[in-house]
Specification:
Elements lengths: L1 H16 L7 H10 L4 H23 L5 H26 L5 E5 L2 E5 L1 H18 L1 H4 L8 H15 L3 H8 L6 H26 L3 H5 L1 H20 L7 H20 L3
Antiparallel strand pairs: 1-2
């Protein structure tokens, strides 16, 4: 029951709260899925939910996207997401770095889990530290931002916070900022899912169709309510919650507990 309930609840709440921030759904949902599924499966399931939610948001606000920003940022992100997803597949196939016993259980520190754990800590700092949360870069850095956001999006699913760092200085309206971010996120999700599909056994999605569908439906409902009700909600509590969850799950991944 928990593999259905917790991801669905996380998807519903986060999709609503983060509708206007442009990021946060994958950041929270990945650790929740990782509690119940192997990390590679958790990343793939999160990507499917993330894409479905972004396509829904695209239908709501897609007309406001800035085409110039999409081309300069989105196309490099699309290409880099392939590389990040390929890196994930290669890391997933590497042997464990260490094995040890804890409370009668054999635990392993896998390279892919260690890398994702480090990324989680880094992006948790972006979520919670005021100086990093307000850090932005000028418009001329858009192609580099696309490469970085796309690569890490393909590797671990963490693309939104990096994307916001670059897009916030583009002089976009609120509607254009949301819409442009959604278009770029869709490009990255499609790119990485194409690689995941070629590298992961097809039955992984089928075997986890129940939790996946529950999370997808919950995310769509959350986004729908987010657009109608939660326009002025503060993101500070969400940022702290995201950071705390990321730190805890990162510790579990790095130690082999998860």
């Amino acid at each position: 029951m928990l593999p259905y309930l917790l991801p669905a609840l996380a998807a519903f709440v986060t999709a609503g709260l983060t509708f206007f921030s442009g990021f946060g759904l994958g950041t929270i949902l990945l650790p929740v899925f990782a509690l119940f599924f192997p990390l590679e499966v958790a990343i793939g399931l999160t990507a499917v939910v993330h894409l479905a939610n972004n396509l829904f948001k695209l239908a709501l606000v897609g007309k406001y996207a800035d085409r110039g920003v999409v081309l300069r940022f989105g196309l490099p992100a699309l290409a880099a997401a392939f590389l990040g997803a390929e890196a994930l597949l290669r890391l997933a196939g590497l042997p464990a770095l260490a094995t040890y016993q804890l409370f009668g259980h054999t635990l392993q520190v896998a390279p892919v889990k260690l890398v994702v754990a480090v990324l989680m800590v880094v992006f948790a700092l972006f979520e919670v530290h005021p100086a990093l949360a307000d850090f932005t870069l000028p418009r001329g850095w858009l192609p580099l931002g696309g490469v970085l956001s796309g690569f890490f999006g393909g590797l671990s699913g963490h693309q939104g916070s990096l994307r916001s760092i670059f897009l916030l200085k583009c002089g976009l309206s609120k509607e254009a900022f949301i819409s442009t971010g959604v278009v770029i996120a869709c490009l990255v999700d499609i790119s990485r899912l194409a690689v995941y599909a070629s590298g992961f056994p097809a039955h992984l999605i089928q075997d986890n169709a129940g939790p996946l569908m529950a999370a997808m439906i919950a995310a769509l409902l959350g986004s729908f309510l987010g657009r109608r009700v939660l326009i002025r909600i503060t993101m500070r509590f969400v940022q702290i919650l995201v950071a705390a969850l990321l730190f805890l799950v990162a510790l579990g991944l790095a130690s082999g507990v998860i």
